[in-house]
Amino acid sequence: MRRSRRLDDTGQTLPIYIWVTGILLFVAFAFFAFAQAASARNGAQSAADAAALAAAQEAREELVDGLGASIGEGDDWLDWLAGDNFDGDGAEGAADALAADNDSSVIGFGPAEVNGFPGFRAEIETNYTVGDSIIPGTESQHARAEATAIIKPRCDVAPSADPEKAVEFECDGGESIEIDPEDFELDDLPDASVLFSVHLAD
To answer: Which residues contact residue 163 at a Cβ distance below 8 angstroms, ignoring those fewer than 6 apart?
Structure first.
């Protein structure tokens, strides 16, 4: 009788063990699926950030080129220094290139303004999918994300400054720069990052 009871106990325990093991496996696969989705989202956000920053950096280069070309040609060069006048013709191409480097594609792009500063918004979709998982549909699901980057002037010019005369202005970090339209060469301009900062909008 005792042996029979032990066999009965073993027979009752085995289905419970199988049931608990099945639940644990399901939970493990579910966590893995969520981790896959989170990884895809993170990859998409990194690609969107890179695309938006690339667009803003391309526009910053255009600003500096326009600034250099306008000095000595009239009174609008101070507008370039203030971050105005650029059209961002190459910005979308730069965003496309950086998105491609991150195995993604730009599906939405356009100018943006945040707190009065110009910039660009990029929306991307990953070329890769979340991948196979226990959740149906993830094998064909692509991650999407968007980001906005802005261009912010780093130098202050006095409102009374005369663009036809030498102008001295202060930039962030305490750097002092002087531009004389009558005695100017392109090499006189500092690096673009000294004149304008580019960063993601909050």
So the answer is: 74, 75, 76, 77, 78, 181
Q: How far apart are CA 102 and CA 100, in angstroms?
A: 5
State how far the Cα of 160 lies from the Cα of 176, in Å rounded to an integer.
17
DSSP-assigned states of every residue in 7-39: HHHHHHHHHHHHHHHHHHHHHHHHHHHHHHHHH
The tens digit of pLDDT for each residue in 48-105 reads 999 999 999 999 999 888 888 888 676 678 888 888 777 888 899 999 999 999 889 9
What CA–CA distance (Å, rounded) separates 17 from 40?
35
Residue appearing with tokens 């261009």? 151
Residues of the chain with pLDDT > 90: what percent? 30
CB 197 within 8 A of CB 149: no
